[in-house]
Amino acid sequence: MQKKMAFGFIIISFTVFFGMAGFIEEMNTDDLIAFNSDRSGNDEIYVMDIHGNNIQQLTKNSFVDYWPSWSSDGKWLAYTRIKDSNIDIYKVDLKGTCIMSLTQHEAKDMEPAWSPDGSKIAFISSRDKNPEIYVMNADGTDKVRLTDNKAVDVFMHWSPDGRRMTFCSNRDGNFEIYVMETNGKNMKRLTKNCSNDWTPKWSPDGNKIAFVAERDGNAEIYIMNLDGSEPKNITRHPDKDFEPDWSPDGSMIVFVSDRNGNQNLYTARISEDYEMKDIKQVTNGNFSDRHPVWKPQKK
Ligand SMILES: [Ca+2]
Ligand SMILES: [Ca+2]
Ligand SMILES: [Ca+2]
Ligand SMILES: [Ca+2]
Q1: Which protein residues have a CB closer than 5 Å to ligand 1 (ion)?
Q2: Of 140, 149, 185, 244, which is least packed with CB atoms within 10 Å of its CB?
């Protein structure tokens, strides 16, 4: 009997020790959310675990650094920097020690969106006079324009298979959500209403699009089908809820809300019928925490 208990204890100790070690390692490397925050004075890029702990600051300077986008291998974050009245795209590694410039143009270059296979970065540039969508290689070479319209074209996001892109444009009066192939062809409008629709994010299974609209009176997060049908308001809160991003397994969404006075980050579980459950505030304090993006899963 004693022998059996001792053996059981060893098994439990083994599981606790190695299981915990594995858990911590996983927390540190996989379950991460990047965001930008002005908590240290001006906007900088940060990474934290999904519970809002272990916050690491990756940029530290007098410029505005915002709009992070993960590389598919999770080793880099592309982001936008406003410096000396110019706006360009940079990337930073997860230690914050290596920062590289990806655009060097006098026009505004912003909002990088890394492709799912890691080879390309889509971005917005006004180098051809008005905001258009471009794509470049991940090292900043070979920039190609995808849209050609006098309207503002913004907020691209790649489909999980990398073959299509959602974006927003006010070409039809107010901001609506569009989809196109990643060569700019076969463009189609998905929303049609009198309020602005913003920041579409494809679900990891490729079946839904989360986005933001003010059609019910204030900024809310919605989920709709790929053809724009059945939009469902999933926040239904009188304060502003915006900038949603899916967890890699599609079971959760991280978003920004000012429901507790200022812009903080929240996570929620998404149920099978696309309801928000277990809403949890993950950042606190009197700053603006914005643009959360969940680290992609290792391929
Ligand atoms: Ca900064
Ligand atoms: Ca520029
Ligand atoms: Ca345009
Ligand atoms: Ca709301």
Answers
A1: 42, 44, 61, 63, 65
A2: 185
Distance from Cα 132 to the centre of ligand 2, integer Å = 13
CA of 242 to the centre of ligand 4 (A): 8
The model scores a pTM over 0.85: yes
**Tokens for 121?**
């970065």
d(CA 255, CA 98): 28
Q: How many domains does the chain have?
A: 2
Reported as a single tens digit per residue, the pLDDT across 43-94 is: 999 999 999 999 999 999 999 999 999 999 999 999 999 999 999 999 999 9
In a domain, 299, yes or no: no
Say whether both 77 and 166 belong to one domain: yes
State the ligand closest to the CA atom of 88. 2
| Residue type (1 letter), 254 | V
What's the domain range around 268? 34-294
Q: How far apart are CA 99 and CA 109, in angstroms?
A: 17
Quick check: is 258 in a domain?
Answer: yes
Give yes or no for residue 23 having a pLDDT over 80.
no
